Amino acid sequence: MSMMEQDPEQTYDVLIVGGGVNGAGIAADAAGRGLSVLLCEKDDLASATSSSSSKLIHGGIRYLEHYEFRLVAKALAEREVLLRAAPHIIWPLRFRLPHLPSLRPAWMIRIGLFLYDHLARRASLPGSRSVRFGPDSPLKPGIQKGFEYSDCWVDDARLVVLNAMAARDHGALILPRTRCVSAQYEGAVWQVLLHNEFSGEQQRVKARLLVNAAGPWVQSFIEEKLHRPSPRHVRLVKGSHIVVPRLYEGPECYILQNDDKRIVFAIPYEGEFTLIGTTDKEISGDPGKVEIDADEQAYLLSIINHYFKRQITDRDICWSYAGVRPLLDDESSDASTVTRDYLLTLTGMAEGGEDGARAEGGAPLLSVFGGKITTFRLLAKEAVDKMQAVFPDLGPSRTQEQTLPGGDFDNPATLYDRLKAEAPWLPDDVARRYVRSYGTAVFALLDGCTSLAAMGEDFGAGLYEAEVQYLRRHEWAVQAEDIVWRRSKRGLFMTKAQQSRLQEWLNSRND
């Protein structure tokens, strides 16, 4: 639905600014509880922080050193919930922690892993254990001992899109590439001016509650768009990653300690690559214009070369990306120790606290400060729970039991067998990718296709026209970048000429 197709007289219960994981999660929860929801995002869904993560659902073992037990316990419990909700895009991953006695003593690591195993109930993930690295290890010969534990991998950008789809399934209107120009509270409702960046179209919409889930722009949105002081401040911390050809065989992730007390992950990525990150570098300026710098690149390369037999240089880097984490300002002196927890503020309510009734003429604004991808669902639940101050008849959240679109299956191998039985002509590598990207939604993607020829043009790396059409019609994809870097990750395998051909094809359909 475009902006022009809206009912100009409709007043939405909730208007959410920000199409990252927190905004999409809040939209899904709020719409699932019966509220009318509009979400606007100035760029593509997940185009900033939420597609620039280390792509992990994890408790954050290093946060134990900073005594963040509550945050770690919440995150550990969420791993099991999210595994059930999205088994196509989230799956278990074993982490290997090589032990260097000069950095952290073994007893400290054992205590940390014991807490990691027991701070929350584990239903499916195996616990930690000690490991020995033999001559076949990818690590240097001097590294012989270590530890192993469980966390999960996630396709971060698809997690955002699936939450947006879940919200739409419950009636929410999702408007990517639609910027919030201004918002004023008039006549007991928010009057919000929206501008579609793609079409140039503008329209005013009304909402009873405004949610500021603008991520790195959460503070500037309040100060520059609403012209009021922000109740809290965020610190903008850049995290950069590099992708190189696969460093080692095996499905495990390596978690590497550094002498600055930070850790770096080396993660198997898209079959043929290793994803390496992340850095912590405080920035100022526009968070939408960040990229890895030479110092960060050298930092990541040096840590990898300190641990692995295979030595790499900047010439091995296939791709890099950087994102900005909007961390709640807790006055830590070091960016790497700033809390990854979140804070929700509900302002514009009656005197007597955030949970009081709305003041006459008050402007209810819910703002999201901080957070991490692992706890997005809990954040969304707590955010919508706070809305009960505005909507007294609001029911309970159901997201803990619900699956995300495409996640209604028990076993990926069984789903793969079903897909191959129904579409035996589909190449094996494409079928496997479809299962892990779309789950049961793959059958909607293949609707009407009875042969590989019916899938249409192959734009490169097995990205067929049928998939592109599905992404345009169901997942808000407009540009080639949306498809090859966020929806499918095919950009790692496609040439620039192939990506240009895809953009040319899209331009002919988007006119």
Automatic annotation (TrEMBL):
Xref: PROSITE patterns = FAD_G3PDH_1
Gene3D superfamilies linked: 6.10.250.1890, Alpha-glycerophosphate oxidase, cap domain, D-Amino Acid Oxidase, subunit A, domain 2, FAD/NAD(P)-binding domain
Q: Does the keyword Membrane apply?
A: no
A GO MF annotation of the entry reads: glycerol-3-phosphate dehydrogenase (quinone) activity
- Entry's EC annotation: 1.1.5.3
What keywords does the record list, in alphabetical order? FAD, Flavoprotein, Oxidoreductase
Q: Which cofactor does it need?
A: FAD
Listed under catalytic activity are: a quinone + sn-glycerol 3-phosphate = dihydroxyacetone phosphate + a quinol
Major enzyme class: oxidoreductase
- Annotated Alpha-glycerophosphate oxidase C-terminal domain ranges read 397-502
UniProt family annotation: Belongs to the FAD-dependent glycerol-3-phosphate dehydrogenase family.
Q: What is this protein called?
A: Glycerol-3-phosphate dehydrogenase
Q: Which organism is it from?
A: Iodidimonas nitroreducens
Its gene name is: glpD_2
